[in-house]
């Protein structure tokens, strides 16, 4: 560029006004601000995107957290369920261990029960005189103090061996046994104190007498000799020339074993529960070679000839009863190649007790035995029987009996011993659940109090003052117990133990049958009469397992009932009378 032109442009730039410079500067700043604004906009957009990402992530994590909470709730619920199942399984194991190794008796011992709060439970009533005497003792400062002699007795060791004190009852010699004298004299040929035994003088009236109870088992062969007789002279026509004395009555015709042998076999098997094989072994020790075929053949004849007709008459007598007890237990029938499980039913009225063997445990067995109903399935609708004519059946809580009650055939009186067993089972199953144990022990005391009041009530005639007093106490205790059951059932399932709620629901469902004894004082609180009556069947089942034929299976029900409470002498006498009447 020419030098003159550069000078002219240079002079022109210096000749600008201040406003133009300011405007240019503002434009530059504006451009810078736009760039910065664009940068901030980009940063903001990036921040918004990041924020949205974080927000979406937070929402996702919230969803995951909710899912984890739900899963945690499910796991907690599952854990509680598993804990309950574990507790139940431990309870079953504890119960089975108690059944195997524990005491068989369920008798309540108050010393074994430790309840912290006994204020609401009345075990014994204290009279006012006892309270007054206790107050006087406390005021005199005598309570809790011991004399020096009592302290010495506490610290003194007990000596070994026999102790001083009241004498016992002494030896009791049975009065019904025959006494056989055995006289002991000095042995001949011996020298006693330098004097021969024969030179000592026996003194009468100075004998020393002692008693020893002995048993004599003797087998012998009885030879029956039947005499022959001829008629007198001048007898009429048609009279035989010679006759023989009649054959005495025998339990089994043409049998070589006498009545006492068969009675011993029956009693040893069905009262003492000794298997036939052991009895045969005992006979062989006395050189009596009886074979199993002879035994079972003879028992079959005795059952069909003498015992089965008696059994049928007893069933008719049982059906005429007003009140019944019933129970059942398993029984094995080995008729087929494989074992078949049957059931031995026990029924008892006021006068008669019988047992029935059946292959089923359904309601058809008590319906047929007690009511004579051969096909209970045909009864579709409940039978209308006046309540005053309904018979009462003492039972446990088995569902077959409930079917009879549902059809209106009987009234059920449930067993309080089984209710009590629910709480004793809780003690056996959950020994480490202290709160549950304390609750079960309180209920055991309440049931024991019911037994006590009812036992006092039935000692007095109905309508008497003492009867009405105890009857009022019983009704009040039953009413309070019913209210407490309703309160327990309304509790939250998650807050109470499953066994506790189950026991209360069971009592609620059977409450009407449990309190039927209130209006019927002749009804016992439990079914122990039949529970104890059917025990010989359980003992026999455990000793000789079962039966291999139908007639043999029907034999135990008759014989266990016939020989349960009789001894050998009475049994021999009864069967002898039966044989004599039958032969006549």
Describe the protein.
With 584 residues, this protein is of the alpha/beta class. The protein has a domain at 253-312 and 550-583. The protein has 19 helices and ten strands. Strands 5, 6, 7, 8, 9 and 10 form a six-stranded mixed β-sheet that branches. A two-stranded antiparallel sheet has the order 1-2. Strands 3-4 form a two-stranded antiparallel ribbon. The protein is elongated, with a radius of gyration of 47 Å. Mean pLDDT is 80; it is low at 1-14, 116-146 and 565-570.
Fraction of residues in H or I helices: 40-55%
So how many helices? Answer: 19
User: What is the number of beta strands?
Assistant: 10
Global Rg:
47 Å
Largest sheet: 6 strands, mixed
Q: List low-pLDDT spans.
A: 1-14, 116-146, 565-570
Order of helices and strands: HHHHEEEEHHHEEEHEHEHHHHHHHHEHH
Average of the residue pLDDT scores:
80
For the record, give the distance between the C-alpha atoms at the N and C termini, rounded to a whole number: 173 Å
Determine the strand fraction and express it as a percent band: 5-15%
Shape assignment? elongated
User: What structural class do helix, strand and pairing data support?
Assistant: alpha/beta
């Amino acid at each position: 560029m020419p030098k003159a032109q550069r000078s002219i442009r240079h002079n022109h730039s210096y000749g600008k006004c201040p406003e133009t410079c300011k405007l240019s500067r503002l434009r530059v700043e504006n451009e810078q601000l736009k760039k910065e604004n664009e940068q901030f906009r980009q940063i903001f957009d990036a921040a918004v995107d990041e924020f949205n990402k974080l927000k979406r992530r937070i929402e996702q994590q919230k969803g995951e957290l909710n899912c984890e909470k739900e899963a945690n709730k499910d796991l907690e619920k599952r854990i509680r369920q598993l804990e309950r199942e574990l507790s139940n399984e431990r309870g079953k194991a504890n119960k089975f261990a108690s059944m195997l190794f524990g005491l068989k008796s369920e008798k309540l011992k108050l010393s074994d029960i430790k309840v912290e709060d006994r204020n609401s439970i009345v075990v014994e009533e204290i009279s006012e005189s006892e309270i007054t005497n206790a107050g006087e003792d406390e005021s005199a400062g005598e309570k809790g103090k011991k004399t020096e002699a009592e302290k010495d007795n506490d610290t003194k060791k007990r000596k070994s061996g026999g102790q001083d004190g009241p004498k016992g009852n002494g030896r009791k010699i049975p009065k019904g046994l025959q006494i056989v004298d055995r006289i002991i004299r000095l042995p001949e040929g011996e020298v006693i104190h330098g004097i021969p035994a024969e030179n000592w003088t026996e003194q009468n009236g100075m004998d020393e007498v002692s008693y020893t109870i002995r048993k004599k088992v003797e087998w012998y062969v009885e030879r029956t000799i039947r005499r022959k007789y001829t008629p007198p002279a001048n007898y009429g026509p048609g009279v035989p020339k010679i006759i023989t004395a009649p054959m005495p009555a025998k339990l089994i015709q043409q049998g070589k074993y006498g009545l006492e042998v068969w009675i011993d076999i029956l009693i040893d098997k069905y009262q003492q529960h000794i298997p036939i094989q052991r009895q045969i072994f005992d006979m062989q020790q006395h050189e009596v070679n009886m074979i199993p075929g002879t035994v079972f053949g003879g028992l079959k004849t005795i059952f069909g000839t003498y015992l089965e007709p008696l059994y049928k008459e007893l069933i008719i007598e049982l059906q005429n009863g007003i009140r019944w007890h019933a129970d059942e237990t398993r029984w094995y029938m080995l008729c087929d190649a494989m074992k078949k499980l049957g059931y031995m039913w026990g029924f008892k009225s006021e006068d008669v007790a019988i047992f029935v063997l059946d292959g089923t445990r359904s309601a058809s067995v008590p319906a047929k035995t007690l009511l004579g109903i051969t096909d209970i399935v045909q009864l579709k609708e409940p039978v209308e029987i006046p309540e005053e004519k309904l018979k009462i059946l003492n039972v446990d809580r088995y569902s077959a009996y409930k079917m009879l009650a549902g059809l209106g055939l009987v009234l059920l009186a449930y067993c309080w011993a089984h209710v009590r067993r629910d709480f004793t089972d809780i003690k056996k199953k959950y020994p480490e659940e202290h709160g549950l144990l304390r609750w079960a022990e309180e209920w055991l005391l309440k049931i024991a109090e019911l037994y006590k009041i009812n036992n006092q009530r039935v000692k007095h005639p109905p309508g008497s003052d003492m009867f009405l007093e105890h009857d009022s106490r019983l009704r009040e205790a039953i009413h309070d117990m019913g209210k407490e059951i309703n309160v327990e059932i309304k509790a939250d399932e998650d807050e109470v133990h499953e066994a506790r709620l189950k026991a209360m629901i069971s009592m609620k469902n059977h409450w009407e049958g449990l309190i039927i004894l209130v209006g019927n004082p002749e009804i016992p609180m439990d079914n122990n009469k039949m529970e104890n009556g059917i025990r010989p069947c359980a003992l026999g089942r455990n000793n000789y397992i079962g039966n291999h034929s139908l007639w043999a299976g029907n034999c135990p029900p008759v014989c266990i009932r016939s020989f349960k409470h009789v001894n050998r002498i009475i049994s021999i006498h009864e069967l002898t009378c039966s044989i004599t009447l039958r032969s006549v």
